[in-house]
């Protein structure tokens, strides 16, 4: 040992958040301590093909230079090598790398798929495992688990697209009696507010369901809550550290994709201007939610605070939150005294610890006396 940690950064991905992932990867590569780490960029293209490269200083200046290609197209990609779809499973991660940081958001990235591949390859990786990632990506399943853990949340109805297509009237009636208007309709498996809309009457509900159903076969409808949006970071495997609480103040009617990523009128207030008692309650709920999904590494946990009634509701867990230095999660920990590069260090360490912990498990029965 004593030598540098060989860190692979897997980014891009077949996801609507491809671009965000590129930005995250660039930030991580820039911030990381180069005396401590050797970085191998691994780019997952939109079509699912993987390209690995050797990161050059020149590449660290723009997102576009991280779009590695087969060594034929751009100058920045001269050191890259195409790994075909079929070759991915046989890529010998373990020989080349000590740990992988998968910075892919959304479906096919933060949902357990890449985590599963890395489990098979038996290589330590940053962040949540397969189960926590999958649960954190599916709003319906996540809500069922929160309910089981007695976490306060807004009333919701989960349904399948086919159910709505088959018996629309019954679905409207169910939503109207269980939730009423206004309500929020969401595809269970998206992110960044894609496919989400608010419905104030049956006509809008039909349109909202039709939109959400374009993105997923699993749908969630929730009661609307007029509330402030508070977020907290959790860091750790079993011993959990929470950050300060931050607030997202959106100018638009709700915090949608544009507000989130194009900065259209969104303001982050860190720490949130709220009573200490509310922060404490949120930290407590956040740890319980994290444990309920068996989180590891990191998560940003989002809450609604209905100030008038002093009610806190959990909204969701994001197992791979935005992770540029200007994203909420790193800023929340920055405010708690942990810098961006230290955060990366800690995440790598947690990845290795979790991997080691898993090696304790007996795999084959014949090894058991
Ligand atoms: N039940 C709700 N009541 C009020 N606003 C909501 C509700 N659900 C979602 N929103 C608004 O929509 C935004 C996106 O919803 P969210 O479930 O967080 O999806 P995403 O995974 O895309 O972040 C929230 O940040 C919030 O502004
Ligand atoms: Mg959200």
From TrEMBL:
It catalyses: 2 D-alanine + ATP = D-alanyl-D-alanine + ADP + phosphate + H(+). Its cofactor is Mn(2+); Mg(2+). Belongs to the D-alanine--D-alanine ligase family. Cell wall formation. Binds 2 magnesium or manganese ions per subunit. One of its GO terms (molecular function) is D-alanine-D-alanine ligase activity. ATP binds at residues 139, 184-186, 192-193, 222-229, 315-316. PROSITE patterns: ATP_GRASP, DALA_DALA_LIGASE_1, DALA_DALA_LIGASE_2. The gene is ddl. It holds the Pfam family Dala_Dala_lig_C. SUPFAM superfamilies: Glutathione synthetase ATP-binding domain-like, PreATP-grasp domain. It comes from the Bacteria. Mg(2+) 1 binds at residues 302, 316. The active site is at residues 17, 192, 327. Its EC number is 6.3.2.4. GO terms for biological process: cell wall organization; peptidoglycan biosynthetic process; regulation of cell shape. The keyword Ligase applies. InterPro entries: ATP-grasp, ATP_grasp_subdomain_1, D-Ala_lig_Van_CS, D_ala_D_ala, Dala_Dala_lig_C, Dala_Dala_lig_N, PreATP-grasp_dom_sf. It is found in: Cytoplasm. Keywords: ATP-binding, Cell shape, Cell wall biogenesis/degradation, Cytoplasm, Ligase, Magnesium, Manganese, Metal-binding, Nucleotide-binding, Peptidoglycan synthesis. This is D-alanine--D-alanine ligase.
């Amino acid at each position: 040992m004593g030598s540098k940690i060989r860190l692979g950064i897997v980014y891009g991905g077949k996801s609507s958040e491809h671009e965000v992932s590129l930005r995250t990867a660039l930030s991580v590569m820039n911030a990381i301590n180069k005396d401590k780490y050797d970085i191998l960029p691994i780019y997952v293209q939109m079509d699912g093909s993987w390209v690995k490269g050797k990161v050059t200083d020149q590449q660290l200046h723009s997102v576009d230079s991280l779009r590695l290609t087969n060594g034929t197209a751009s100058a920045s990609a001269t050191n890259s090598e195409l790994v075909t779809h079929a070759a991915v499973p046989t890529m010998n991660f373990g020989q080349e790398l000590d740990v992988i940081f998968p910075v892919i958001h959304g479906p096919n990235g933060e949902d357990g798929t890449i985590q599963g591949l890395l489990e098979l390859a038996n290589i330590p990786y940053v962040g949540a495992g397969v189960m926590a990632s999958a649960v954190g990506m599916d709003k319906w399943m996540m809500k069922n688990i929160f309910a089981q853990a007695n976490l306060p949340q807004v009333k919701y109805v989960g349904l399948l697209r086919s159910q709505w297509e088959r018996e629309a009237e019954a679905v409207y009636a169910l939503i109207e009696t269980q939730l009423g208007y206004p309500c929020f309709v969401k595809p269970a498996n998206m992110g960044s507010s894609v496919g989400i809309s608010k419905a104030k009457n049956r006509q809008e509900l039909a349109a909202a369901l039709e939109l959400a159903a374009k993105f997923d076969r699993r749908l969630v409808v929730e009661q609307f809550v007029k509330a402030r949006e508070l977020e907290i970071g959790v860091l750790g495997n079993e011993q959990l550290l929470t950050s300060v609480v931050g607030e997202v103040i959106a100018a638009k009617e709700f915090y949608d994709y544009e507000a989130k990523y194009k900065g259209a009128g969104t303001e982050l207030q860190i720490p949130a201007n709220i009573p200490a008692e509310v922060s404490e309650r949120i930290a407590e709920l956040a740890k319980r939610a994290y444990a309920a999904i068996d989180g590891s590494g990191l998560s940003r946990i989002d809450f609604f605070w209905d100030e008038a009634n002093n009610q806190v509701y959990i909204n969701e867990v994001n197992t791979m939150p935005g992770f540029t230095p200007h994203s909420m999660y790193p800023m929340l920990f920055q405010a708690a005294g942990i810098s961006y590069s230290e955060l990366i260090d800690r995440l790598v360490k947690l990845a290795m610890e979790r991997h080691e912990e898993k090696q304790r498990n007996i795999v084959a029965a014949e090894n058991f006396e």
